[in-house]
Amino acid sequence: MLRNIVMMAANISQAQVSAVSREKIQSSLKTVLEKISAVSLKRPDVRSTRRPRLVAVSKTKPPEAVLAAYDSGQKHFGENYVMELIEKSNDEEILEKCKDIKWHFIGHLQKNKVNKVIMIPNLYVIETVESEKIAQSLNTTWSKFNKERQLKIMVQVNTSGEENKHGCDPSEVSKVVRFIKEKCPSLEFIGLMTIGSFDHDLSNGPNPDFKKLLECRDKVCEDVGLSREDIEISMGMSNDFEHAIELGSTSVRVGSTIFGARYYPNKTANGPVKTTENGPVKTTENGPVKTTENGPVKLADDGTVKPEKNLSIGLENLSVKEKEKSDQR
Length: 329
What we know:
This protein is an alpha/beta fold. Helices cover 39% and strands 19% of the residues. The protein has helices at residues 2-11, 13-19, 22-40, 63-71, 82-89, 92-97, 114-117, 132-144, 173-183, 208-225, 241-247, 256-259, 315-326; strands at residues 53-57, 76-79, 102-105, 123-129, 151-156, 187-193, 232-234, 251-254, 267-268, 271-276, 279-284, 287-292, 295-298. The strands form two sheets. It has an eight-stranded parallel sheet with strand order 7-6-5-4-3-2-1-8. Strands 9-10-11-12-13 form a five-stranded antiparallel sheet. The protein is globular.
């Protein structure tokens, strides 16, 4: 399925790059970088704080979009899916013209995909190590290929406790980091990563998920004997990267703000879309669901609205889960 997404994205690349033009991508990138610089100056101690890194998340976008951002000076790019990253990182034009590109893998990593992801050309870091098992697998596999350098990794933390998010529990972070430092000589631990809750209202105060990651960093420093400067903090996406930087993020992952809305051919993050007389319809595991003025409603098989408005069965899938996984990086 992911291979089909990439291939179809390549086929429509000309239309996509004309809709969100090269100039638009470069202009949006410049705006994001200016915002990062401006908000960095609001930190309490600017001199002792490293400049936040921008990771441009190019998932579902064609190679032309990556080239447009790279030509404007962007070097760090993030991808969520192993197969899509394989396709883009091995693209002939990217290999030829983007010699200094640095790929971040920022999606859920399964053990059966480890062999594939470590062979990515110009792989810079895997940000989503969530267990000792995955760390051990990466360490063993990386060492087999006699790599000249250690593989940079971050430990992903599920700071919100949501079941649909990956990452280790905050109480396990020090244990996982210690395992990496002591048992994984082929890995270089460089930081912690989290995905904050999508719908946090800043009028209620700082995002507690971001604060929790900073607490995890301080606990790791205490338990493992590291300094704050040894641990990068990867948090903040398109909707909240400025707030994340204010709190201390050293790396933000921004996608749709730079490249425009994402394209999912014939499928969304949660299921296929069927076009009916009543408009696009999402199919969830509980049946077809359509968003109306009154919220999500369950549909009949032909796409017509059923009399009852079942607002609960598809609501979570249609809102938080889809937005976090698809549009906010």
